[in-house]
Design goal:
The chain is built from four helices and no strands. With 90 residues, it is an all-alpha fold.
């Protein structure tokens, strides 16, 4: 049985956010990355549900699972409960 991992601290989340922003700025200035982006544009287009869109969705789901694993008390509030009820088949 594995031990539950502690929730990430707010400092780590902020640091990861700033790393992502910095990498985005750097990658936009690199010429070969722009060429790769142009090549992948049909796959990245939001009107097509391609493999990269599915990978992006799964990555976001994994991230949200990690962020909210220990903070599930908000699911007992009225609005999330009503949203969950809407998704259930009667």
């Amino acid at each position: 049985m594995t031990k539950p991992q502690p929730a990430p601290s707010p400092r780590n989340i902020q640091l990861d956010f700033f790393r992502g922003v910095a990498l985005t700025i750097i990658f936009r200035r690199i010429a070969w990355f722009a060429e790769c982006r142009a090549y992948l544009e049909p796959w990245l287009d939001k009107s097509h549900l391609g493999l990269l869109r599915w990978l992006h969705f799964l990555a976001l789901a994994y991230l949200m699972n990690g962020l909210f694993r220990r903070k599930d008390h908000w699911l007992a509030m009225a609005l999330p409960r009503r949203i969950a009820e809407m998704g259930r088949i009667p």
